[in-house]
Write a structure and sequence with these properties.
Helix content is about 40%, strand content about 0%. The protein is mainly α. It has three domains: about 30-45 and about 205-270 and about 315-380, Cytochrome Bc1 Complex, Chain D, domain 2; about 50-200, Cytochrome Bc1 Complex, Chain D, domain 2; about 275-305, no CATH class. The chain is globular. Keywords: Heme, Iron, Metal-binding, Oxidoreductase, Periplasm, Signal.
């Protein structure tokens, strides 16, 4: 339903669109499409059913912040969540491939609390569920429930904060392996993940030139901070580029999965399985939620609707476009180093072998001119905060 609504909005924009000249800035096309632009990129709240993190209270957020930057969460003592999600890199790491076992690029954490499915392939639902994966992975934090229990038991501040939030630690399970203790330890680890989720959900999205443009547009005044080139780029983004088919809302993502023909780096036609492989993983991992809750029941109902669909081969989640100037390299596998590379990809798909089963009409060459490409990149840069610090 949401996808059809957005396609309808874009169709309306396209009908009234025509090439913008410098003298049209702030008039003509923008005046005609003001309401549609405001609606397309308006605010969107998180689905309350996916808020499996502790409510956004100050104690939980500060506790989560402490855990996020604490390398003691890893068994080696060398890694923390911030090792891969660096604030100065808009909560990414600047690497083509993430540290650890992943062959994928590290996504930003900004706005993830508004998404249902997490990881590039959407193998989990909800922030807390996501956080347990690097905790348990021996190639990442390797902080299983027993290890975390020991850390909390000997760290007075963590123990007291946990007790305040959830009650006593299940200390009695440190030397027991029965089913009852396995459930208690799993719940303990999930509670720690919820605290981390509280901090992640509090990470703000820095104000950008586009936000100021939106603010002035909403007030009914001619935006003073957008250049004619920025505005032409916005028009391309909405119309001939059809970028807003997938990149819409306040975070410029539909939260869904698409195969946009991005093969593995160094190849022309080797694609990762993506969402197709993640469906079975999602079904398996949701079953790990043992305690009844509104969230776990919601997750199970969502999982029950999943079907193994070959069209999901090579599909990955639409990333946010916020903070683009700080989050290179781009795409799920870090294939492209610059925004210019990304725009060229959609313009021509040069050198890429399309799989026989892939016939999505939305993934067709846009055939941008050189000026179009520069205009589009200029608009994309307005989605990042000004200045050297990616979070100001």
């Amino acid at each position: 339903m949401a996808r059809r609504f957005i396609l309808g909005l874009i169709a309306c924009l396209y009908v009234v669109g025509s090439a913008l000249a410098d003298e049209d800035f702030g008039d003509g096309w923008l005046r005609l499409n003001r309401a549609k632009i405001l609606e397309l990129f308006g605010e969107r709240e998180a689905d309350s059913r996916t808020k499996d993190y502790v409510g956004l209270n100050g104690n939980a957020i500060q506790f989560g912040r402490a855990l996020f930057f604490d390398a003691r969460l890893s068994r080696s003592g060398n890694l923390s969540c911030a090792s891969c999600h660096k604030p100065e890199r808009f909560w990414t790491d600047g690497l083509q491939r993430a540290l650890g076992p992943s062959s994928l690029n590290t996504p930003t954490l900004v706005g993830v609390h508004r998404l249902k499915w997490l990881f590039w392939d959407g193998r989990v639902i909800g922030l807390a569920h996501q956080a347990t994966h690097p905790m348990n992975n021996p190639e990442e934090l390797d902080g299983d429930p027993l290890y975390l229990m020991g850390l909390f038991a000997r760290t007075g501040e963590y123990r007291s904060r946990y007790i305040t939030q959830f009650g006593e630690l299940p200390i009695e399970c440190q030397n027991k392996l029965g089913e009852e203790c396995q459930v208690k330890l799993a719940e303990f680890q999930l509670n720690v993940a919820k605290i981390l989720g509280a901090f992640v959900a509090s990470i703000p999205s820095p104000q950008t030139p586009f936000d100021e443009f939106q603010r002035q547009l909403a007030q009914g005044v001619k935006p003073s901070n957008f250049t004619a080139q920025n505005l032409r780029g916005l028009q391309i983004f909405l119309e001939r580029g059809r970028c807003a088919t997938c990149h819409w809302g306040p975070d410029f993502t539909d939260g869904q999965f698409h195969n946009v023909l991005v093969p593995e780096p160094g190849t022309a036609g080797v694609f990762s399985a993506g969402r197709l492989a993640a469906i079975n993983e999602a079904i398996r991992t949701v079953k790990q939620y043992r305690q009844p809750s509104k969230f776990s029941e919601y997750a199970k109902s969502e999982i029950s609707r999943l079907k193994v669909d070959s069209s999901m081969f090579g599909a990955f989640k639409t990333p946010t476009l916020r903070g683009l100037t700080c989050t290179a390299p781009y795409m799920h596998n870090g294939r492209y180093s610059t925004l210019e590379d990304v725009v060229e990809h959609y313009s021509s798909f040069t050198g890429i072998l399309r799989p026989e089963h892939h016939n999505d009409p939305l993934v067709e060459p846009r055939q941008f001119s050189d000026i179009d490409k520069k205009d589009l990149v200029s608009f994309l840069k307005t989605l990042s905060a000004l200045g050297p610090d990616c979070n100001n």
